[in-house]
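Lecture 7 notes: from sequence to structure.

We start with a single chain of 64 residues. Read the sequence below before looking at the structure.
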Amino acid sequence: KVKAVIFEDDNLSSMDINVETNNGIVQLSGFVDNEADIDTAENLAATVKGVKDIENDIQVREEQ
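Now the structure, written as tokens:
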């Protein structure tokens, strides 16, 4: 469910976000374009029923 909510958000570059869930704990990882996307992904995950905790390891992609 968390993956679906994140991937449905048009403002996120969600192809580079990995989502794993285990007993209500959500692990977010991967890369996004800016700090705001990190917060957006976490806030979206928090809206999903049954989520107890979120471990957010998403990082901002380094510009090359």
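Residues 2-60 form a domain with the Histidine-containing Protein; Chain: A; fold (CATH 3.30.1340). Keep this in mind for problem set 3.
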